[in-house]
Amino acid sequence: MTADLSTAPGALAAAADTAPSVVQTIDWLAIAPPTLTALAALLVLVTDLFLPAHRKRLLGYGTLTALAAALVLLIPLRAGDRSTFCVTTGTQACSYTADHFTLVIQALVLGGAFLTVLLSLDDTRGLPVGEYWFLLLASAAGAALLPASRDLATLVVALEVASLPAFALVGIKRGDRRSSEAALKFFLSSVVATAVMLLGVSFVYATTGTLHLTEIADRLADVPPVLDTLAKAGVALTLVGFAFKTAAAPFHFWVPDTYIGAPLPIAAYLSVVGKAVGFSGIILVTVIAFPSYADVWGPALAVLAALTMTVGNVAALRQDGTRARSAVRLLAWSSVAQAGYLLVPIAAAAYSSDEQIGATVAYALMYAVVNLGAFTVAALVARAHPGNRIADYRGLCTTRPLAALALGFFLLCLAGLPPGIIGLFAKVAVFSAAVDAGLGWLAVVMAVNVVIALYYYLRWTAILFRTPETTVESARARTPRTTGTPASGARGFHAPSPLTTALVLTAAAGVLLSGAPQLVLRFAAVNLF
Question: What are the 10-residue block averages of pLDDT along the chain, 529 residues in total?
Fold first, then answer.
């Protein structure tokens, strides 16, 4: 007994030497973009306590600088070969991976947040400035974390970090009934979707005993028959939360009211960054975690894609141009329709190969640039016409010819017509993904919806270049020299330099991509994982 006790310390020491280390090393460079964004959010919140009111504008420029720095930090990661927070017990599972897919989506998210700040710098009157910038940075940090997440726990946390500040941003206009109603609707529907998704995650965990996406894929490939139904239910329910974020029908009902009630820059942010978050989550769980159940999520996503693009386009077609905020409402329904197109390559991946995902990434990059550009012009027009009706854009070419040309170009890109070459090529890439996967019926549905969308995009484009309306009474009351002065749409208004900068950036990016579409479309032919 004594001999056993005397040798026990040596045996324990030997065991400690041979046991695998559970201490994880952290690749700080890999996690730098979302980490810097989160730290900047905390810094803005604290700094707001000490800044006098007349210097609050500095917080906006600080937010802009932080997002620019986070974008720069993506450059050293361009090789796409870094992972961290990895399991050290013999598997290769990691919770954070900075591959090419991650870097592209992080660039989209941080770039979208950067342009949102430009739209917001002169549009924060009456808002709690410090809270606004803090919430925007916090949401961007969660959105940047999500595409790098490689386990379900991190995915859920990143999704909620991106979403919870967005609820507050939608309802940040205190005293505005429409804003409060939009935030409440957004919050309640999101909570229900998250609860359903968490139920699905719990089913997946019960089936596989792990949360890492790669390990889930391995274990779902050999699920005991008694657990097969539970696994299928988990796969389907997990997709619900991400389908809500993408505004896929029938989870889209929050979109129009939320976009209208939110500050216009936040509506632009949700239309691009919020969508990127949802699609990133869907791609990660389907392609990486659930390939064995492609027969479950493939048909489901195909049906969702067809339903989403149809609902969005039909609703956009019915918008009355004289209704208050009809411009934002049309962009909201347009974003629903675009979500349907974005779902097509993901559904196609279930029937062919993971390379189809590249078409979604290419389309998302095109959509982000031109949709943010359209919202930029909407923010510009809203300075003179707070009602932001489509009718208010009539004759815009006479007062803001460059803005009218830019908006016309953005709308043609969304429609997929020249000179919006990048929009045309992106739609062709998505259409080809459906055809290559054997989803002919989905390609036909998409073709019909593209034709439907042409009507309302071209109708809005035509309004920009029509002669401004003048009533008979006003024409008689004017002298001959002023008879041609428009009654609406042509009134001059000031364009702040941040708004002008955002418009120049988005227009330049759209023209560049139309001139060299291969910069984006190369993703459509590359396996990003």
Answer: 45 46 74 95 93 87 95 92 80 85 94 94 83 95 94 92 92 85 88 91 92 91 89 91 86 89 92 91 92 91 95 92 88 94 93 83 92 94 88 89 93 90 90 91 95 94 83 40 39 74 94 87 71
Adjacent-strand bridge partners of 472: none
* Structure letter (DSSP) for residue 25: P
* DSSP assignment string, 371-405: HHHHHHHHHHHHTT-TT--GGGGTTHHHH-HHHHH
Nearest CA to 278 among 332, 350, 343, 326? 343
CA distance 259 to 182: 8
Count, residues in the chain: 529
Instruction: Tell me what percent of the chain is helix, strand and coil, each rounded to the nearest 5.
Output: 75, 0, 25
Contacts of 265 (CB under 8 A, 6+ apart): 116, 119, 120, 123, 375, 379
Q: What is the 3 state secondary structure string of 128-163?
A: CHHHHHHHHHHHHHHHHHHHHECEHHHHHHHHHHHH
pLDDT tens-digit readout, 455-477 = 999 999 999 988 876 543 343 44
Side chain identity, residue 215: E
| Calpha distance 103→128 (Å, rounded) | 32
C-alpha–C-alpha distance, residues 70 and 342, integer Å: 26
Where residue 90 falls (left for φ over 0; alpha for ψ -120 to 50; beta otherwise) is left
- The Cα 113–Cα 144 span in angstroms is 10
Give residue 360's identity as a one-letter amino acid code.
T
The span from the CA of 102 to the CA of 79, in Å, is 11
**Helical H segments across 383-465, by residue range:** 396-399, 401-415, 421-436, 440-464
d(CA 146, CA 207): 24
- Which pTM does this prediction carry? 0.89
Q: Is the peptide bond before 498 cis (omega within 30 degrees of 0)?
A: no
Structure tokens that stand for 282 in this block: 């869907």
Largest CA distance in the chain: 116
DSSP state of 89: S
Compute the distance between CA of residue 430 and CA of residue 302 in angstroms, rounded to an integer.
13
CA–CA distance, 123 with 421 (Å, rounded to integer)? 32
* Burial of 518 per CB tally in 10 Å (0-12, 13-18, 19+): exposed
d(C-alpha 70, C-alpha 49), whole Å: 24
| d(C-alpha 398, C-alpha 380), whole Å | 15
| Measured CA distances, 158 to 258, 332, 389 (Å) | 21, 24, 36
CB-facing half-sphere around the CA of 277: CA atoms within 13 A? 32
